[in-house]
Design brief:
Elements (H helix, E strand, L loop, with lengths): L11 H9 L3 H16 L7 H18 L5 E4 L3 E10 L3 E13 L5 E11 L5 H14 L9 E5 L4 E11 L6 H16 L2 H6 L8 E2 L8 H8 L2
Antiparallel strand pairs: 1-2, 2-3, 2-7, 3-4, 4-6, 5-6
Helix pairs in contact: 3-5
Length: 224
């Protein structure tokens, strides 16, 4: 008898109807199998690869926005940050670039940038002015829903404005680098607005020793 092959063409709805007719035990087996299939070929990015990408983007970030102040690595994020503060208010806001938000498959979901603005603590009215400034100025840059962030170590609560792409949407490291550069360039475009609102950002400095690098002066130096 000759071997033969055939193709069974069914619509999604027809498949669904067949599944509904299965006994419960078979439905559970099918669910487990589909979960297994969904985990196959899931794009992954190792900590070593993340370190390499961030190390490569660091000079561009520093040239366009200013020297980073710190980096953070937890199970939820891996990023470099340029943070700003005031002596009488502590942490105000920061520009962050890297990989963010784990999902239930223990993979970073997003690559890109965010701007975090703390809205609680001292001088809430001025913090609200910073928040509204970034909300308006970053409008063309933001591509995610505005969300609340918390930082328990400092007791901070605030708002995250983000520009992300799914990690699984990139084909290679070069695409991640290009997206990072594009995000940095677009963020830099708000620097003239910060300069024009120098009074609002009075006493705001880069949050790193010697605590004397004024934000407005940083913007004047790095905007091109």
């Amino acid at each position: 008898m000759k071997n033969s092959s055939y193709r069974l063409d069914l619509t999604f709805e027809q498949i669904l109807q067949l599944i509904r007719q299965l006994p419960t035990v078979d439905k559970l087996k099918l669910y487990e199998e589909l979960e297994h299939i969904s985990l196959e070929n899931v794009p992954t990015i190792s900590d070593e690869k993340i370190k390499e990408v961030l190390r490569n983007i660091k000079p561009y970030f520093g040239d366009k926005l200013g020297k980073y102040t710190h980096k953070k690595h937890t199970e939820d994020y891996y990023f470099y940050a340029l943070a700003f503060s005031r002596a009488d208010m502590g942490y105000l806001f920061g520009f962050n670039i890297g990989f963010f938000h784990h999902d239930d498959k223990t993979q970073y979901q997003n690559a890109g940038m965010n701007v975090l603005i703390t809205t609680n603590k001292e001088n809430v009215d001025l913090r609200e002015r910073y928040l509204n400034f970034f909300r308006d100025s970053l409008n063309p840059w933001i591509n995610q829903k505005e969300r609340i962030f918390t930082y328990p170590e400092r007791g901070d609560v605030g708002i995250e404005f983000a520009r992300y792409r799914g990690v699984d949407s990139f084909n290679n490291d070069n695409e991640i680098m290009e997206y990072f550069k594009e995000s940095i360039d677009m963020l830099q475009k708000i620097y003239p607005s910060i300069i024009n609102n120098a009074k609002v950002f009075e006493k705001v400095v880069r949050a790193a020793p010697r605590w004397n690098e004024n934000l407005v002066e940083i913007c004047k130096t790095h905007f091109s």
